[in-house]
Amino acid sequence: MSPVPPDAPRDTGPDALRDTGPDAVTLAADIRAGRTSAAEAVDAHLARIAARNPRLNALTVVFDDRARRAADEIDRALARGDDPGPLAGVPISVKENIDLTWSATTEGWAGAADAIPVRDATIVARMRAAGAIPIGRGNMPDFGMRWDTDNDLFGRTLNPFDASRTTFGSSGGDAVAVATGMSDIGLGNDFGGSIRLPAQALGICGLRPSLGRVPRAAVDELPVALTLQRFAVNGILARSIADLEASLQIVAGVDIDDPVSLALPPVAGYDGPRRVAVTRDPPGWGVAPEVAAGIDRAAAALRRAGWQVDEIEPPHLEEAFTLMRRLAVTEMSGGALPSPLGRSADRFMRDSAQATRPFATAADYAAAWARRLVIEASWRRLQAEHPVILGPVGTDGIPPVDFDLGGPAQATAAWRMFRLVVVVNFLGLPAVAVPTGLGADGLPTGVQLIGPMHGESAALAAARDVEARVG
User: Fold this and answer.
1) Which residues have CB under 8 Å from 395's CB, separation 6+?
2) Is 194 a catalytic residue?
3) Which of 54, 198, 221, 256 maximizes the CB count within 10 A of its CB?
4) Is 29 part of a structural domain of the chain?
């Protein structure tokens, strides 16, 4: 385990987006068929890391020796005729807040720099059992408490399209690693858009599963804030919808150590109603032209694929957004996080608390949760008729770095930019981010396709059709 040498050649900017190699499903098939080896795959990824990571700072630590040993074990298993798993030899990255015994789970916070876990998180253990090889850790803001990927411990992750623009967050390091071919799959999580937003900024795919589909951290004696219990999920970043689907089959399933996880039927092919509700500018607060154009391209792709596409505004959007924001700020500013965080995360949390009224009484807090069920029922009725909702990820394109800092008004602007994203989390729904090409500024555009509760198959089916025609 070692950092990338500081004198390594630097392949950055548009060059970092070339030569990413095949997607994970294709690479695993090549390794299993003997067309290449796991050792060759790992070496190719390590070469890309050496060329690209010193400037982009996507991976905080690189497991070169461990990854090579794991690849050798897979190659020996294949030589014996054993089955090392469906993702045999595929290099993956693991976000800094997901337990992996190969390194500390820092959560991007200097106070946890030595917090080496005693076991892998279930999502990591399942990927390793399927033959995937952790090759590095993905950078993130402190405890995921910003929408930009920067912290005092590891520094900023840069966007290879334009270093002056954000990668979003909090799974920004894994998104950059996947987009530039340093890893093939990124394991991240999503409390307020932390998978879908970086996917949009990097022109890749991201899956936020529905609540309970994929296990999260093991629950021991430490309390877990209710918003984290209900709004946060582990998910996946990849360069293709096929890779999202293959990874989901591996990591989904009940886990005795996560009481929120559920024993759900496996995600299979979708055979339900092919109807989509489009919300272009929820709820009329403004959307950038390149974002709207991406939504139009996705809607046209779905129509060509045989979906019925209707302009329908989902119910209670503004109310759901407001409740989500107030609940999150109430808990995150009320002792759910250690203090102090890093400088920028503390600043964002302070600005958000000043801009948002936390709930002052237990009755108001309880009433917000009670109201949530009414909103969820309205969305369920909508999605019984239109199972998939198509809309923006971030409504303002890819803003400059530190766009979420600058005072309470700027914090509010950032929250409003992600209104549809956070409503999805508020309701626990599955959503897939899929690219829709480049805007006039040369930066990626993307949309999210939102499925009904535990209806990942519907969202993935629509995302496949958008990817095939636009992405």
Assistant:
1) 281, 285, 286, 287, 288, 291, 416, 417, 418, 419, 420
2) yes
3) 198
4) yes
Domain span at residue 353 reads: 275-469
Q: For residues 354 and 463, state if they share a domain.
A: yes
Is residue 203 located within the same domain as residue 317?
A: no
259 located within any domain? no
As a whole-number percent, the residues of the chain with pLDDT over 90 amount to 91
- Do residue 245 and residue 324 come from a single domain? no
Within a domain: residue 220?
yes
Residue 262 inside a domain? The answer is no
Residue 168 above 70 pLDDT? yes
pLDDT at 216 over 90: yes
CATH at 76: 3.90.1300.10
The neighbouring-strand residues paired with 208 are 431
Same domain, 318 and 444: yes
- Asked whether 151 and 139 are in contact (CB, 8 A), the reply is yes
Among the three residues 218, 251, 284, which one is the final residue of a domain in this structure?
251
Who has greater pLDDT, 1 or 7?
1
Residue ending a domain, choose from 197, 218, 251: 251
Regarding whether 417 and 314 lie in a shared domain, the answer is yes
Query: For position 431, what pLDDT does the model report?
Result: 99
Reply yes or no on whether 344 is catalytic.
no
> How confident is residue 2, by pLDDT bands cut at 50, 70 and 90?
very low
Band (340; pLDDT cuts 50, 70, 90): confident
The sheet with strand 431-438 has its strands ordered as 59-62, 133-138, 91-95, 185-190, 233-238, 205-208, 431-438, 444-450, 388-392, 275-278, 308-311
DSSP string, 222-287: S---HHHHHH-EEEEEESSHHHHHHHHHHH-S--TT-TT---PPPP----S--EEEE-SSTTSS--
Residues 108 and 141 in one domain: yes
Q: Quickly tell me which residue has 């709004």 as its tokens.
A: 231
Total tally of structural domains belonging to the chain: 2
According to the 3-state scheme, what is the secondary structure of 165-207?
Answer: ECCCCCCHHHHHHHHCCCCCEEEEEECCCCCHHHHHHHCCEEE
What Rg do the C-alpha atoms of the chain give, in angstroms? Answer: 21
In the set 37, 183, 194, 457, the catalytic residue is: 194
- Determine which one of 37, 93, 95, 103 is catalytic: 95
Co-location of 232 and 280 in the same domain: no
Over residues 160-171, the mean pLDDT reads 97
Residues 325 and 236 in one domain: no
Give which of 391, 437, 394, 402 is closest to 194, Cα–Cα: 394
pTM for the structure as a whole: 0.96
> Is residue 183 annotated as a catalytic residue, yes or no?
no
Read off the pLDDT of residues 34-83 as tens digits, 9 standing for 90 and up.
Answer: 999 999 999 999 999 999 999 999 999 999 999 999 999 999 999 999 99
Percent of the chain with pLDDT over 70: 97
